[in-house]
From TrEMBL, chain A:
Name under which the protein is recorded: Insulinase family protein
Location of the Peptidase M16 N-terminal domain: 35-180
Family the UniProt entry places it in: Belongs to the peptidase M16 family.
Residues covered by the Peptidase M16 C-terminal domain: 190-367
Taxonomy, superkingdom: Bacteria
InterPro entries: Metalloenz_LuxS/M16, MPP/UQCRC_Complex, Pept_M16_N, Pept_M16_Zn_BS, Peptidase_M16_C
UniProt-listed Pfam families: Peptidase_M16, Peptidase_M16_C
BP GO terms, sorted: proteolysis
Organism in which the protein naturally occurs: Leptothoe spongobia TAU-MAC 1115
Gene3D superfamilies named among the record's database cross-references: Metalloenzyme, LuxS/M16 peptidase-like
TrEMBL record, chain B:
Top-level taxonomic group: Bacteria
Organism: Leptothoe spongobia TAU-MAC 1115
Ranges where the Peptidase M16 N-terminal domain occurs: 21-168
All copies of domain Peptidase M16 C-terminal, residue ranges: 175-350
Parts forming coiled coils: none
One Pfam family hit: Peptidase_M16_C
Protein name, entry field: Insulinase family protein
GO molecular-function term, one example from the UniProt record: metal ion binding
């Protein structure tokens, strides 16, 4: 059980052929629950991945950490299932189960032998729909979550990412840690968590994705009998309406941390959310041109030639309300200033000088193949459908390679100009204390 | 789960005239081909004066050949969106390739070039040397890595398993180009190499390709140098490292037998029982029932030489002592109280089920089978291991625990106020 910040748009489908028919079945049940299914006849396993719009973005500020803590508590059982029974039921037959929470979603998944699906699914459905959240388990598990938080505090990269999130996201809930804060968790009650559960674990917020060695008829039959009685709907406190985050300044910050062996320089820009996936794909291309692979501009210049950084990497991830474009460098602290300047110059030139055709083609091949390589197993496929299904539509999961391949060098310049401005960039340096 | 996730196999295994072993397995499901080239050389061939040499050597394979520069190689790989990498581990080194099937021949050809004709350019050596040293330093940032480093040193002393695979700052600083060339000349040779190719490719075509690219590579006339390893003596050991962290780490472990020993399957089962998954013994007892930790687990690596059976926990500093007691009592319990028939069966199902799930992708299949080959166990070990696990009895599991859990090695790291009393 863990928190994840995002799923990269590039972590995902097919080697770049346009407009393939969507290979999965998407069925909306009368309850409002969405079932996504793809049969893969060659595998004897089945993956169930249930995605719920119940991530940290839905928490009011005073409930920070509730969504992730609830994800832990779901495993603590129901009136029918004692704590630990579900884990034992799945694992004792050789299956795997776990869960993760992000800002936009929580998801719970298991991999089982196809013949065990009918045995395993009722457990998972009961846990998700009827989580009991026993008071004694709530207190005990809170210690575990607080240990998870303490562990993250010993990780300089986690601290860096969290600090940067606070700098770039302003009042938006993306600025808050999914894990929450110990002092806030101490004030929360099991009843508040039940309220959160009954509010958000509702059929219209949920996608049940099932991939692997099982037919559609069998899936629908099993889901209809197990995901049947949802909790009585409530409405707990929420964030209220949230404006999409916009970064209109260029905040800069330096943080001194103990036991640091490298300095870090992390620079971040915001892009559009999942509702403009095409533009997001263009930014993904630019991130790859800049700092993915030894041929990319910044790796070549800063690590291979000048040797000012030990490592530099880009990451680009799409969320519901915005995307995040990050360039991270690991370097000696005395190079932080000049490396920051080089990065700003190289970013600025993307808006005025077109990238070359070979650069574009390299980025397109790298991204489309990464996408194809990340659909090899039923579990990867289920994750992809669930992610897009929760944030947008399952069908959008196949749009990625088409969008990537559609770009021309001329179309990328305006994107760089609009989204990668040095005046709208968060910059964080970490130095040894 | 006792199902097999391996593809329906259309496969060929053969030896070339120069001794090279080739395995080709067709798996047409995805448009992907993965290949691994394994060599039986790794940390076990190192000594305290040159630890890290095979890590540095393999990192340099993609940084220049007789015909291409580092950038030429990167260009060839990145422009087709493939991956080509080289790495070294405790008991082996490998070059790995992953491509869409249309690009396989082209990139595999390049892989054989970096294997046969690396040029080790001086400037690239300096760059990799710097990056390796920085990599070693950055491990010092993670409390678990620091605690584990001291644990490993206490257990293995001057045996190469006692060092990071990257070596030490001193050895990496001292390494010279001619040592790299010599190590390559002695150990990178067809007669001890295994090539395994898995994916959407006709096995005959795969074999022909390997024959064409590597069939003319003549092995040196002398045999590859065998490892010369110091004995590792079992002795109780404890080290306490004060460090002002938010969390304390406790590592408790034992020297353990190699993959070829009769107790191997039983110890793998015990480590599954203790540390694998949400229903494992340590997870249930220390996390679920006592809320002591987020991270608590156990591992027992598959090694050709003396392995280790390790349990660990990250906990609040004030709970360090309770956490150590918890690990000790769970390991002692395995010696004193036999597993129930149910516990044993659950551990077997879990172990075999997850083992099957670890063979889903072409890369995973190539990695596992090639590894077994290079350890000298043969691909048949895939079946033998599963049969051995299924055959472990309650008595065998308890006796393996009693034989293994004798001299404990303990490493504790955390704030001085919490850990000093545990010295």
């Amino acid at each position: 059980m863990s928190s994840v910040s995002d799923v990269s748009a590039s972590n995902s489908s097919d080697g770049g052929r346009f407009k393939r028919p969507f290979p999965a079945n998407v069925v909306r049940l009368d309850s409002g629950l969405t079932v996504i299914h793809q049969e893969i006849a060659t595998t004897p396993v089945v993956v169930v991945d249930v995605w719920i719009k119940a991530g940290a973005r839905y928490e009011p500020e005073t409930w920070t950490g509730m969504a992730h803590f609830l994800e832990h508590m779901v495993f603590k059982g129901t009136e029918q299932i004692l704590p630990g029974m579900f884990d034992a039921a799945i694992e004792s037959r050789g299956g795997l189960t776990n869960a993760a929470t992000s800002h936009d979603y929580a998801h719970f998944y298991m991999t089982v032998a196809a013949d065990d699906l009918a045995h395993a699914l009722p457990y998972l459905a009961d846990l998700l729909l009827h989580a009991a959240i026993p008071a004694d388990e709530f207190v005990r598990e809170r210690h575990v979550v607080i240990e998870e938080i303490h562990q993250s505090w010993d990780d300089p990269d986690w601290i860096g990412f969290q600090t940067l999130s606070e700098m770039v996201y302003g009042d938006h809930p993306y600025s808050r840690s999914v894990l929450g804060a110990p002092e806030i968790l101490q004030e929360r009650s099991p009843e508040e968590m039940r309220q959160f559960h009954r509010t958000h674990y509702q059929p219209d917020n949920m996608q049940v994705v099932i991939t692997g060695g099982v037919s559609l008829d069998r899936v629908l039959e099993l889901v209809q009998t197990t995901f049947r009685t949802f909790p009585h709907r409530e409405s707990c406190p929420t964030m209220g309406s949230i404006a999409h985050p916009r970064l209109l300044t260029n905040p800069q910050h330096t943080l001194a941390l103990p036991r640091l062996e490298h300095g870090r320089l992390v620079m971040a820009w915001l892009g559009p959310g999942i509702d403009d996936l095409k533009t997001a794909c263009g930014l993904d291309i630019l991130a790859t041109v800049l700092a993915e692979g030894r041929m990319s501009r910044l790796v070549r210049e800063l690590r291979e030639d000048r040797q000012w950084v030990d490592e530099i990497a880009s990451s680009f991830s799409v969320q519901q309300d915005c995307s995040l474009f990050v360039l991270s460098s690991w370097l000696a602290p005395d190079h932080i200033k000049e490396v920051g300047q080089v990065i700003c110059d190289r970013i600025a030139s993307l808006a005025t000088i077109p990238i070359t055709t070979p650069e574009l083609e390299r980025a397109q091949r790298v991204l489309c193949n990464d996408y194809a390589f990340s659909m090899e197993t039923p579990g990867q496929l289920a994750g992809l459908y669930g992610y897009y299904g929760t944030l947008a539509t399952p069908e959008l999961s196949l749009a990625y390679p088409g969008y990537i391949e559609s770009y021309t060098i001329e179309q990328l310049m305006p994107l760089a100009k609009q989204y990668l401005s040095p005046d709208h960039c968060g910059t964080l340096a970490l130095t040894p204390a | 789960m006792t199902v097999s996730t391996a593809p329906k196999q259309n496969s060929i295994t053969t030896h070339l005239g120069n001794g090279l072993k080739v395995i080709a397995i067709e798996n047409p499901v995805a448009d992907i081909v993965s290949a691994r080239v394994f060599l039986p050389v790794g940390q076990i061939h190192e000594n305290p004066h040159n630890v890290g040499i095979f890590s540095l050597l393999t990192s340099l394979l993609t940084r220049g050949t007789a015909h291409r520069s580092s950038l030429d190689i990167a260009e060839a790989v990145e422009y087709v969106g493939a991956s080509l990498g080289a790495d070294s581990a405790s008991d082996y080194s490998l070059v790995s390739v992953k491509t869409v099937s249309a690009d396989f021949e082209n990139i595999f050809t390049l892989a054989t070039e970096i294997l046969r004709e690396p040029s080790f350019p001086e400037n690239e050596i300096e760059l990799e040397r710097k990056l390796t040293i920085q990599g070693l330093r950055s491990m010092q940032e993670q409390p678990f890595s620091v605690a584990y480093k001291y644990f490993r040193e206490g257990m293995y002393g001057h045996h190469p398993y006692g060092f990071s695979s990257m070596g030490t700052e001193e050895t990496v600083m001292a390494m010279q180009r001619d040592e790299l060339l010599e190590a390559h000349r002695q150990h990178f040779r067809p007669d001890n190499m295994v090539v395994i190719i898995v994916g959407r490719i006709d096995p005959e075509r795969a074999i022909d390709l390997v024959e064409r690219l590597l069939g003319d590579w003549a092995a040196p006339e002398y045999p590859a140098p065998a490892p010369r390893l110091p004995a590792v003596d079992s002795h109780a050991y404890r080290i306490v490292t004060p460090q002002e962290t938010n969390q304390a780490f406790v590592i408790l472990g034992y020297l353990a037998v190699s993959v070829t020993h009769a107790d191997f399957a039983a110890l793998k089962l015990l480590s599954t029982h203790l540390g694998n998954g949400l229903s494992s013994r340590l997870f249930v007892e220390l996390r679920e029932k006592q809320g002591l930790a987020y991270d608590v687990s156990a591992f027992y690596p598959t090694r050709l030489g003396p392995s280790q059976f390790v349990s660990y926990i990250g906990t609040a500093p004030e709970n360090t002592s309770v956490a150590l007691d918890g690990l000790q009592s769970e390991l002692r319990r395995l010696c004193e109280v036999p597993l129930t028939a149910h516990e044993l069966q659950v551990a077997k199902n879990k172990m075999l089920g997850q083992y099957a799930l670890g063979k889903q992708t072409n890369g995973q299949i190539a990695q596992l089978l090639g590894w077994y080959e290079i350890l000298g166990l043969g691909t048949e070990f895939d079946h033998i291991f599963q049969a051995n696990v299924a055959a472990v009895t309650i008595e065998a599991a308890q006796e393996a625990a009693q034989r293994c859990f004798v001299d404990s090695y303990i490493s504790i790291l955390g704030p001085a106020t919490a850990v000093e009393a545990l010295r």
